[in-house]
Amino acid sequence: MKYALITGANKSIGFETARQLLQQGYYVFLGSRDPQKGEQAVAQLHAEGLPNVEPVQLEVTDGASVSAAREAVGQKTAVLDVLINNAGLSGALPQPAATTEVAVFKEVYDTNVFGVVQVTQAFLDLLRQSAEPRIVNVTSGLGSLTLHTDPTWKYYPVKVAAYNSSKAALNMYTITLAYELRETAFKVNAVDPGYTATDFNHHSGPGTVPDAAARVVKAALLAQNGPTGQFFSDDNAPNTGISPW
């Protein structure tokens, strides 16, 4: 059996990603910063006949919480096959570059960038024990510098300073980590799940949660000859699944 950890997995895309990985035969550690919500999410999956899942209290911005989660997972398995950094924060909106307070930038970066780094580094030792380790960072097309400078891109006017730049930083971290691990079996990629109707955007997106989660799962299940250090986006490059950074 293979093991996966998903951050921010008690609802929306993270929860559906857990469901789909369970359906693929994985054992899932469902990360949630609120223990009660994590337990409720796991109870729902158990009720659906998916037993191989358990909650892990995990606040990605809290070093002590991350360390405790690493200890808890390590007591159950010596190998982690998949890490999905799904937890994210949009921050207070709007976010004009000229006037958004630095505190907003720090709050958003703490989850979207530093949290990812902290969790990834904490679980790298377990991932290194896997024959086919996969790291998937859930990002956004709004983090693409190339797309933002293209006036024909449908989201060209959407300039949300803190959130967009945090996802650009996450994309660069993905590239850098993939490069460092290029001589190993690791596949490290960023996935844009698309503009999906979730609590994150007040259910304004046209995409569905199952479709968004399927994109994340696809990257988690990449074959050994699959790509690494890439940005996958069905919305922004439907013919290839990969859009420019």
TrEMBL record:
<comment type="similarity">
    <text>Belongs to the short-chain dehydrogenases/reductases (SDR) family.</text>
</comment>
<dbReference type="InterPro" id="IPR020904">
    <property type="entry name" value="Sc_DH/Rdtase_CS"/>
</dbReference>
<dbReference type="InterPro" id="IPR045313">
    <property type="entry name" value="CBR1-like"/>
</dbReference>
<dbReference type="InterPro" id="IPR002347">
    <property type="entry name" value="SDR_fam"/>
</dbReference>
<keyword id="KW-0560">Oxidoreductase</keyword>
<dbReference type="Pfam" id="PF00106">
    <property type="entry name" value="adh_short"/>
</dbReference>
<dbReference type="GO" id="GO:0016616">
    <property type="term" value="F:oxidoreductase activity, acting on the CH-OH group of donors, NAD or NADP as acceptor"/>
</dbReference>
<keyword id="KW-0521">NADP</keyword>
<protein>
    <submittedName>
        <fullName>SDR family oxidoreductase</fullName>
    </submittedName>
</protein>
<dbReference type="InterPro" id="IPR036291">
    <property type="entry name" value="NAD(P)-bd_dom_sf"/>
</dbReference>
